Amino acid sequence: MNSRVKNQVVIQARMGSTRLPGKTALKLGRRTVLEHVVRRSGAAMLVNRVVVATTELAGDDELATWCDEHGIPCVRGSSEDVLSRYLLAAEKFPCENIIRITADCPLIDPGIIDALLSLHAGSGADYTSNVIPPTFPVGFDAEVIKTSVLQNVGRLAELVSHREHVTLFIRENLDRFKTANLSYGQSYEHIRLTLDRDNDYQLLKKVFAHFENGPELFSFYQIMEFFEQNPDLIAINSDVDRFEGMKKSAASENRRLKWQ
Fold first, then answer.
1. In the 3-class helix/strand/coil scheme, how is the chain assigned residue by residue?
2. What burial class does residue 163 get, using C-beta atoms within 10 Å of its C-beta: 0-12 exposed, 13-18 middle, 19+ buried?
3. Separation between Cα atoms, residue 178 and residue 83, nearest integer Å
4. What is the pLDDT, as a whole number, of residue 19?
5. pTM, 2 dp
6. Mean pLDDT rounded to a whole number for the chain
7. If we measure between CA atoms, which residue out of 12, 250, 258 comes closest to residue 141?
8. How do 74-77 and 95-102 pair as beta strands?
9. Least buried of 129, 134, 175, 210, by fewest C-beta within 10 Å?
């Protein structure tokens, strides 16, 4: 039986993508995108375990095989109901807190994860994030949720959008939860360092190429220094709305996000 841990990262990952197929297995430097996310998440001092939550689709067999070969705990579930995948991860690998990370964030910073976990513990929050409001670049988003709270959300969330976007029910019903938010001293929310389109990939390749001969776990601060020295690079993929996916899901239900 898998032991219960305090803080468990769950990375939602899939190969299917209409805009950038197979993006999770793309190479950045010597490693794949998923490997970067797993290694960086696991480097956080307060993280006890990292689990990958992928789908049951045949196209994601490659991800499950990679996890098996590298000793990474993995669960497979619904391709549409991502919330159920997180709950499955918590069922098979029990934990007190879930740290939600997406596999399109190969620069996720272990220091930011630790800061979130410290804030979460100190505030006694149900839900702690760095996105309400966002001040970090897209691609450094992370959320901590008490497992018991997410299990309750699983019982309450009925909209398709609330099942697809794991914490959207919480973010649209903040009055029901005790929340905390990690903010940075200045706003970098206009910088996009996530992977969803080819131009995102081109920008990320430039970042990894710059640090090729440096420390492998280069930090958020080093990345921001790189962009301060190369501000023109920001324009490569700056035309994408941070909340595009959530807005699209809400629109399919003939509604707007509550903070729009």
1. CCCCEEEEEEEECCCCCCCCCCHHHCEECCEEHHHHHHHHHHCCCCCCEEEEEEECCHHHHHHHHHHHHCCCCEEEECCCCHHHHHHHHHHHCCEEEEEEEECCCCCCCHHHHHHHHHHHHHHCCCEEECECCECCCECCCCEEEEHHHHHHHHHHCCCHHHHHCCCHHHHCCHHHCCEEECCCCCCCCCCECCCCCHHHHHHHHHHHHHCCCCCCCCCHHHHHHHHHHCHHHHHHHCCCCCCHHHHHHHHHCCCCCCCC
2. buried
3. 20
4. 86
5. 0.97
6. 96
7. 12
8. unpaired
9. 175
The mean per-residue pLDDT over the stretch 218-235 comes to 96
**Tokens coding 177:** 């939860």
Residue 58: alpha-carbon gap to chain centroid: 23
Closest CA to 11 of 84, 86, 92, 71: 86
Residue 73 phi, psi dihedral angles, 5° rounding: -55, 140
- List the structure tokens of 172: 């649209």
pLDDT in tens, 184-208: 989 999 999 999 999 999 999 999 9
Query: Residue 222: how many CB atoms within 10 A of its CB?
Result: 15
CATH placement of domain 5-252: 3.90.550.10
The pLDDT confidence band at residue 27, using thresholds 50, 70 and 90, is very high
Joined tokens for residue 167: 């914490």
- Residues 40-70 pLDDT 10s: 999 999 999 999 999 999 999 999 999 999 9
pLDDT category at 72 given cuts 50, 70, 90 is: very high
Percent of the chain at pLDDT > 90 equals: 91
